[in-house]
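Input record, target 12 of the design panel.
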């Protein structure tokens, strides 16, 4: 009997429940017997997905409390008291995408700024996405709109069929409320489009054979003149096939618009060129690993991710844009440097204020920075918002020098605040409490990782809970993305109020700030990069073990949750420590790191993980690649995979193959793949509500948690 035959025999009962003929048909001699599951829309693969979906729905929809959870989650997500966050402030108008039960795909609408600031916006529907999709026979998902300053009349509206990263870009007239007849239309592709002026676009898109990078993104940026076909657009810059992507950018500095072309060399390195007034490209002095943050008062602002001479990584710097355009930029001016615990996370520029959101031990702090025109010196004014809260910079009203920021905490309902160039910030709107915050506690703790590094985490529990209880840890640990605590009705990502349901049960919910993210700046990210990836898995284990040693939870009663890059995290963690974890949730996950660079957008992440085709890189990757480390004879913690067929960023084959391989060990697997939703895994609130209820039922069933 072959090794694969032995494995199949050992788990025959489990596999039989999920379409036995389909799995058994995989060739026993293949290096990867589940390779056929990478055929995204293939009939065989889809039939298997349908069978897995049906089994999961049968098992979990019948769980006590499922329907109550689903209905409550949907009510929370659709509640019309939600904050209408501004997606853009355009002169004296504010735009917002509003989704509720009646408008699952959303209403793109506008209000005058004065009534919005007064907390009584006068909304006017601009585009009804649901109605548009119905009229055009498309499952449109809103991807945003870019409206050209200073009059903001013409907009580039991006729409995705089913939520994929690929989108159609169409010109829209705000004055007439209609798409422009014979206006600009960029066909469906993973495009990057920017206004140069009213009659010219910069377009990076799929121009046909040979025009994409190995990562599947545009390799050419062209200038497209109104009234001509896209095929007649003139080449501005072309990259190499081994690059990540070519990108088009345009930034407004008061009344002046500047256009840029960015050549993405790796995920973390770019070469930025300014398009001069004569149309020629001018190389900027921006270091390849730095990030352009905006233009303000004639200054080009950037964030350093590596040191620049004596200037430390994590610093904000600037150059006069006129000097850049003339090709004579010298040493940059330092605006702000980081401290041991305080780092820059977000930056927005209005006409005369540079708004800087910092993280201070993972809590949000806001600075309003201005430049003295006489001396050129920068100074910063702290803008108090809320203590130990999560802050996100939402939008700016440029001419008014206003910033809109969202503020929330695990027990603090989200609020929308506005800050001006002077004086305190004020609250425009705060959501009513969705639950009694007085019934719970939240504290920040620190675990000690294997190498001695202190790892912060936030712990939410119901008051009075004692003794070990089931715990759910959510983490990410990659791509410089900090994980900051949000209101329990929105934790963890794409699972609606799962965090709230969990602590109401009397369990522990944890948000872990492991290395690989941006919680403490570039060094925190670099500490889990490529050959150092194991640090992220050790950090997660350290948090779990801290929960055990402090009596919060116990081995085998801890669930771990991660999405996208978090799929690598929880996949590697479950294979390395099946004794420690009792359940696993993986959303849109990366799992097969041997093939990831050949699937969808995977080639663009080699700088993060390593190149599996390079033997020296695979030498370290093979030790933690989840799919390759599933071993026969090992029973792994029960796992729940959720994803979308139309995810064109992380290939659905990752989750499918990992699920099949785990099933072949006899381990328990739940699987839920929506057809639409893209990488976000949720085209509307109805799908998110079902997911929240399914995951809650899964955790209660597998960890023995009861209300």
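The sequence produced for target 12 reads:
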């Amino acid at each position: 009997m072959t090794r694969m035959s032995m494995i199949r025999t050992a788990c025959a009962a489990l596999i039989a429940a999920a379409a036995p003929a389909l799995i058994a048909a995989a060739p026993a001699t293949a290096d990867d017997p589940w390779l056929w599951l990478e055929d995204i829309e293939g009939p065989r693969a889809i039939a298997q997905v349908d069978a897995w979906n049906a089994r999961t729905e049968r098992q979990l929809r019948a769980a006590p409390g499922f329907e109550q959870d689903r209905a409550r989650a949907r009510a929370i997500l659709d509640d019309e008291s939600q904050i209408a966050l501004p997606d853009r402030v355009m002169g004296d108008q504010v735009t917002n995408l509003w989704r509720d039960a009646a408008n699952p795909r959303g209403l793109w609408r506008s209000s005058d700024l004065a009534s919005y600031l007064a907390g009584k916006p006068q909304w006017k529907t601009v585009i009804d996405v649901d109605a548009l999709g119905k009229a055009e026979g498309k499952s449109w998902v809103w991807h945003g709109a870019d409206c050209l300053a200073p009059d903001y009349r013409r907009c580039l509206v991006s729409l995705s069929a089913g939520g994929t990263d690929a989108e159609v870009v169409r010109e829209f007239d705000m004055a007439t409320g209609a798409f422009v007849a014979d206006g600009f239309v960029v066909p469906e592709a993973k495009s990057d489009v920017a206004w140069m002026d009213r009659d010219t676009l910069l377009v990076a898109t799929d121009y046909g054979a040979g025009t994409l990078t190995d990562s599947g993104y545009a390799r050419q940026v062209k200038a497209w003149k109104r009234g001509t076909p896209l095929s007649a657009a003139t080449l501005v810059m072309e990259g190499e096939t081994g690059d990540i992507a070519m990108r088009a950018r345009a930034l407004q500095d008061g009344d002046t618009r500047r256009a840029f072309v960015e050549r993405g060399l790796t995920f973390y390195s770019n070469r930025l060129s300014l398009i001069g007034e004569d149309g020629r490209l001018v190389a900027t002095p921006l270091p390849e690993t730095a990030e352009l943050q905006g233009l303000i008062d004639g200054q080009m602002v950037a964030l350093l991710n590596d040191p620049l001479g004596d200037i430390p990584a994590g610093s904000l710097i600037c150059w006069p844009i006129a000097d850049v355009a003339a090709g004579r930029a010298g040493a940059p001016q330092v605006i702000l440097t980081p401290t041991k615990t305080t780092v820059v996370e977000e930056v927005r520029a209005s006409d005369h204020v540079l708004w800087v959101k910092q993280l201070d031990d993972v809590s949000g702090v806001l600075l309003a920075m201005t430049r003295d025109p006489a001396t050129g010196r920068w100074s910063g004014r702290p803008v108090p918002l809320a203590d130990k809260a999560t802050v996100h910079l939402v939008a700016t009203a440029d001419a008014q020098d206003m910033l809109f920021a969202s503020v929330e905490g695990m027990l603090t309902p989200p609020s929308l605040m506005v800050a001006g160039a002077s004086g305190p910030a004020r609250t425009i709107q705060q959501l009513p409490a969705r639950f009694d915050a007085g019934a719970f506690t939240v504290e920040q703790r620190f675990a000690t990782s294997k190498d001695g590094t202190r790892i912060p985490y936030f712990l939410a529990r119901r008051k009075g809970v004692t003794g070990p209880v089931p715990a759910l840890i959510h983490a990410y640990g990659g791509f410089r993305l900090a994980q900051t605590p949000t209101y329990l009705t929105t934790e963890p990502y794409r699972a609606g109020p799962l965090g709230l349901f969990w602590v109401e049960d009397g369990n522990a919910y944890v948000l872990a700030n492991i290395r690989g993210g941006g919680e403490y700046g570039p060094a925190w990210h670099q500490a889990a990069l490529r050959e150092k990836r194991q640090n992220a898995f050790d950090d997660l284990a350290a948090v779990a073990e801290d929960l055990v040693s402090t009596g919060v939870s116990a081995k085998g009663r801890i669930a771990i949750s991660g999405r996208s890059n978090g799929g690598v995290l929880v996949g590697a963690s479950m294979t390395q420590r099946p004794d420690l974890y009792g359940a696993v949730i993986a959303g849109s996950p990366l799992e097969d790191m041997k093939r990831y660079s050949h699937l969808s957008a995977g080639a663009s992440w080699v700088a993060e993980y390593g190149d599996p085709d390079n033997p020296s890189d695979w030498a370290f990757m093979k030790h933690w690649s989840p799919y390759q480390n599933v071993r026969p004879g090992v029973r792994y913690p029960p796992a729940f995979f959720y994803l979308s067929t139309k995810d064109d960023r992380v290939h659905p084959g990752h989750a499918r193959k990992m699920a099949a391989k785990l099933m072949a060990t006899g381990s328990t697997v739940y699987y839920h793949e929506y057809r639409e939703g893209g990488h976000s895994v949720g085209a509307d609130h109805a799908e998110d509500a079902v997911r929240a209820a399914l995951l809650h039922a899964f955790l209660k069933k597998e960890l023995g948690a009861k209300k």
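The first helix runs from residue 3 to 10.
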